[in-house]
């Protein structure tokens, strides 16, 4: 249940109107305001609640559901919104995760705006359908509640589930707060459904740390969403008896190369489309994220910059503030969009620093230098930089283990020591491993 709070800007009259109402009645009143009014409504809820409200505002036509934690909060909130009459959508309970993704792929083909989600091994069970969704160019939006892959059994966050599809045509983004989750869901539909793109988007959200924690966030009025997000239109690709087309034909060596090149062009186009979407979002909703692809934090004069994705940003930012107060020139760079990869931004923000330290909540066994996936991609991006920094990689927080403020301080101290010495003695560190 989402708890509704009264914002500071609320006038006394409206506060009197809602005082003493039950939580459910107050939520109903506020949802009516969202759907019929023109003001933001502030609530307290989880990251998955925030995504569910975005789906309501986006007029999603079809959602398929199969329970798996930590993603499952979305399907639960969506089910309640449909049952209470605030959302009109076909809610199809699938037999398992593979069916779940097949349902939305085919619904998207006939012109329905769709949503789906999963976590960990559930996401990978659907891999056949996930790959076909991108290669068939259907703009499905999915939430990936990041979770460790079995075995051994683990429900805690790791990023390898989402990263398994980094090379097959899915746009991938990571969020670190409920407000960003809601906003990014709306932006994802705008980007995915753009005729220049027509590729699916996976929105990654750290399991437990964001899927289950409560945040204050604002639900924008539907009137603003309608200005921002046009209706879904497949054009002449819509699968319909009156439009005779072929979907997923057997072409082998005759046309596969050309089709893959078209996907490559769409992914390249995504950079411009994402920039346009964020600019329009700022104008309509009044929330400006600045650079859409990365979030720089005190990096302008930094000697050492740490890089990461997702909720690891919270303790690292606190460490940056504390170390800055002690005179240390440190900063943080959070990657929002992993596909398309923000190559130019990586070069811009990191090419002048002494040490770039990447925190990977993932692993890539046998990779160059045995580093994590994000480390390897950043190292590759910096190959073209005129002034390349020394690089370090911290692999940590696996299986849901916390990366605390103290951990961030320790990582920064190791990177600062490397900056003073002018060399990295240990390139890849599995942080916090018990011997």
TrEMBL record:
Keyword field: Oxidoreductase
Originating organism: Vulcanisaeta souniana JCM 11219
Keyword check for Ligase: no
Transmembrane segments: none
Reactions mediated catalytically: a 2-oxocarboxylate + 2 oxidized [2Fe-2S]-[ferredoxin] + CoA = an acyl-CoA + 2 reduced [2Fe-2S]-[ferredoxin] + CO2 + H(+)
Gene3D superfamilies for the chain: 3.40.50.920, 3.40.50.970
EC number: 1.2.7.11
Enzyme class, spelled out: oxidoreductase
All copies of domain Pyruvate flavodoxin/ferredoxin oxidoreductase pyrimidine binding, residue ranges: 54-277
Pyruvate:ferredoxin oxidoreductase core domain sequence ranges: 302-407
Name this polypeptide is given: 2-oxoacid oxidoreductase (ferredoxin)
Subunit text: Heterodimer composed of an alpha and a beta subunit.
InterPro entries: PFOR_II, Pyruvate:ferred/Flavod_OxRd, Pyrv_Fd/Flavodoxin_OxRdtase_N, THDP-binding, Transketo_C/PFOR_II
């Amino acid at each position: 249940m989402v708890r509704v709070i009264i914002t500071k800007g609320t006038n006394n009259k409206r506060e009197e109107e809602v005082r003493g109402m039950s939580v459910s009645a107050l939520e109903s009143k506020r949802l009516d305001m969202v759907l019929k009014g023109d003001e933001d409504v502030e609530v307290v809820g989880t990251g998955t609640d925030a995504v569910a409200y975005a789906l309501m505002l986006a007029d999603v036509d079809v959602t398929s559901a199969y329970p798996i934690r930590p993603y499952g909060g979305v399907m639960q909130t969506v089910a309640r919104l449909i049952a209470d009459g605030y959302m009109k959508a076909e809610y199809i309970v699938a037999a398992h995760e593979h069916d779940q993704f097949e349902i939305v792929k085919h619904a998207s083909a006939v012109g329905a705006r769709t949503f789906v989600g999963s976590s960990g091994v559930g996401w990978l069970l659907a891999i056949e359908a996930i790959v076909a969704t991108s290669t068939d160019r259907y703009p499905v939006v999915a939430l990936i509640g990041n979770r460790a892959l079995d075995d051994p059994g683990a429900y805690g966050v790791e990023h390898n589930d989402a990263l398994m599809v980094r090379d097959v045509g899915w746009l991938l983004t990571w969020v670190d707060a409920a407000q960003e989750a809601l906003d990014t869901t709306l932006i994802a539909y705008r980007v995915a459904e753009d005729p220049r793109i027509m590729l699916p988007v996976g929105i990654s959200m750290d399991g437990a740390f964001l899927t289950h924690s409560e945040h204050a966030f604002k639900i924008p009025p539907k009137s603003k969403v309608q200005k921002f997000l046009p209706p879904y239109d497949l054009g002449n690709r819509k699968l319909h008896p009156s439009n005779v087309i072929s979907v997923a034909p057997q072409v082998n060596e005759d046309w596969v190369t050309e089709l893959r090149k078209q996907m490559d062009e769409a992914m390249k186009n995504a950079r411009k489309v994402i920039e346009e979407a964020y600019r329009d979002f700022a104008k309509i909703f009044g929330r400006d994220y600045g650079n859409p692809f990365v979030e720089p934090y005190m990096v302008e004069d930094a000697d050492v910059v740490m890089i990461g994705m997702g909720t690891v940003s919270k303790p690292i930012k606190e460490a940056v503030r504390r170390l800055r107060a002690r005179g240390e020139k440190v900063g943080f760079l959070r990657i929002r969009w992993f596909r398309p990869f923000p190559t130019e931004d990586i070069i811009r923000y990191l090419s002048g620093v002494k040490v770039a330290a990447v925190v990977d909540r993932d692993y890539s066994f046998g990779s160059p230098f045995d580093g994590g996936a994000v480390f390897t991609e950043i190292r590759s991006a910096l190959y073209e930089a005129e002034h390349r920094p020394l690089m370090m990689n911290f692999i940590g927080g696996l299986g849901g283990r916390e990366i605390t403020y103290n951990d961030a301080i320790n990582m920064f101290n190791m990177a600062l020591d490397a900056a003073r010495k002018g060399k990295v003695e240990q390139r890849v560190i599995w942080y916090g491993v018990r011997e």
